[in-house]
Amino acid sequence: APVSTISVAGLVPGGVKDVTTTHDGQYLVAAAGDGAVVLNVADAEHGATSPVTGVLTSSAGAKAGAIGVDISPDDHYVFVTLQAAGKVAVFNLQEALDSGFGPADFVGYIPVPDEPTGIVGSPDGRWLYVAGLQRSSSDQHGTLSVVSLAGAETDPAKAVAATVAAGCGADRVTISADGTVVWVTARFSNALLAFSAARLRTDPSGALLAMVRVGEDPIGLTLADGGARMVVADSDDSNVRGESASLAVVSTTAALAGKPALLGYISSGLLPRVLTVEDGKTLLVTNYNSRTLQAVTLADLP
Predict the structure, then answer these.
(1) Most buried by CB count within 10 Å: which residue of 11, 130, 282, 294?
(2) Would you state the pLDDT for residue 140?
(3) Burial status of residue 1 (CB atoms within 10 A of its CB: 0-12, 13-18, 19 or more)
(4) What residue spans of 122-173 are helical by DSSP H?
């Protein structure tokens, strides 16, 4: 049973999307509206009446479509992808916590191609990687943008270092533990893509390392088994006849070696979306349309 249910009604339009925690574990940050809601983790765990610490807002408006969220390694800055607005908003979280939440917390926007969704930081804290569903309203090829994290904190308008094509409908993004490989789900290509992190900056046209066909409309993804396997949430959001939602399991080693890499599929609920590995032994999956949380023992993966 849940410890508590926290309502953000009246604080932000619509509901929350992706969530993450600060590295010190004190705050949970949830993408919502044109920014994010910040909650005190200890207060939430102990059933406080109002664990919401504050709301980070930009100038993009109620329909900006906040989706993805990431936090700088020092927990000072928050980065939120605004899908409908076509931007990434940057906020000074430390300033908000020290001086109170308000307009001064908003730093600016990172200009990326249309419909940014997934975002992840590199392990060394130098780069952000942003997946975009399409390059523009007339070009539906997905994109992957490389952003200087230091630049995003000080001058976000000039922080983009490179942008490459990433299949059709690039949606979510993650990175290997050593920071060398960036993985992206290409939702409308029904594929998992792998890019060289170094070549994204130095040789963008040669950055693509692998493409693995998976199921219908892949969205979320997570590395498992020490990075040896990738689990992909095949959402089947398009309700393709004869297809169904599932979890695809991919060998990352085989994929990067150019060998057949799809190990198999696991059944899921309807529209699996967010994946995470808990305690190194259990895969947790949110099945959006089933309104269920699915737990899979990693030892049972193909």
Answers:
(1) 130
(2) 76
(3) exposed
(4) 149-154
Contact of 172 with 182, CB cutoff 8 Å: no
How many CB atoms lie under 10 A from the CB of residue 25? 10
Residue with tokens 């959006």: 288
Nearest 10 degrees: Cα torsion 89, 219, 41, 5:
110
For the four alpha carbons of 23, 218, 91 and 46, in that order, the dihedral sign comes to negative
Q: Which helix (H) or strand (E) holds 263?
A: strand 262-267
- 130-143 b/e with 16+ CB inside 10 Å = b? bbbbbbeeeeebbb
128-184 per-position pLDDT tens digit: 999 999 877 777 789 999 999 999 999 999 999 999 999 999 999 999 999 999 999
Cα 231 to Cα 77, 133, 223, 228, 238: the distances in Å are 29, 20, 6, 10, 20
Give the other-Cβ count within 10 Å of 20's Cβ: 18
Encode pLDDT of 218-275 as tens digits.
999 999 999 999 999 999 988 877 788 999 999 999 999 999 999 999 999 999 999 9
